[in-house]
Design a protein that fits this description.
It is built from 7 helices and 10 strands. The protein is α/β, with parallel strands linked by helices and 230 residues long. It binds adenosine-5'-diphosphate.
Length: 230
């Protein structure tokens, strides 16, 4: 669940605000693409939703947390409810796939047996069973990104955010990656994907939210990338 109202973000070193009164809602289990030109505030918005960056003002309610007023104690608990996928995968290079995933669960104090079972389960979901002893460099880009997705969903987050998750993948793998997000969404997880992939956005017939200069300029169900262009 996302409920943003009039969210502003001013970086002190910038002349213009990165976000200028962003308002939108996503119901639990919704899927949306977030599109817009470079510099329009997409990554800033995702970082705010992930609790990595503080907004300057506005109401930010996500997964029943008041994100604008989280205490330092609440922050790690909140972040467990949000999975994040980045363009550059961000796997730990000198750890195997299994270790990369276990690490994320160990951090929340899960017992070893539970970790092993859940790691198997998510690897099956992203079709990487058999790769758990590989190091990231031994995997293709598409496989590495699937590990990153497995890590994002490991702790059963209510919301998955992805920032240009197909930016380093070829068109076929990009399509498969979006199908994977669709499947995660069908399991009940809210999914918000930042992307520049016009043809993919058009193929998936999802909600499309468009940001320009820090403002939402279009928000359409079954939207097209282009129809959001001004
Ligand atoms: P997008 O993801 O749509 O490309 P960003 O959120 O990265 O847009 O950037 C929006 C605006 O905020 C840009 O003007 C950018 O230069 C600025 N900005 C982004 N991150 C920072 C930061 N950490 N510090 C200062 N300015 C930033």
């Amino acid at each position: 669940m996302i409920h943003l109202r009039n969210v502003r973000k001013q970086y002190w070193e910038q002349a213009h605000p990165a976000l200028r009164g962003v308002t939108f809602r996503m119901k639990p289990g919704e899927f949306a693409f977030l599109v817009g030109p470079s510099g329009s505030g997409k990554s800033t918005l995702l970082r705010i939703l992930h609790g990595e960056e503080e907004a300057s003002s506005g109401i930010i309610l996500v997964n029943n947390y008041d994100v604008a007023h989280l205490t330092r104690r609440q922050l790690p608990y909140y972040r467990r409810t949000v999975g994040m996928v980045y363009q550059d995968f961000r796997l730990i290079p000198n750890r195997t796939v299994e270790e990369n995933l276990s690490f994320a669960m160990r951090a929340i104090g899960a017992p070893d047996k539970q970790i092993r079972a859940r790691v198997e389960e998510v690897l099956e979901q992203v079709e990487l069973t058999g790769h758990k002893h590989n190091y990231p460099t031994e995997l293709s880009g598409g496989e590495q990104q699937r590990v990153a997705v497995a890590r994002a969903i490991l702790n059963h987050p209510a919301l998955v955010l992805a920032d240009e998750p197909t930016g380093n993948l070829d068109p076929k793998l990009s399509y498969e990656m979006m199908k994977l997000f669709e499947q995660i969404n069908e399991d009940g997880t809210t999914v918000l994907v930042v992307t520049h992939e016009q043809s993919l956005v058009d193929r998936f017939h999802k909600r499309v939210i468009r940001l320009e200069e820090g403002k939402i300029v279009a928000d359409e169900e079954d939207g097209l990338y282009q129809s959001c262009e001004t």
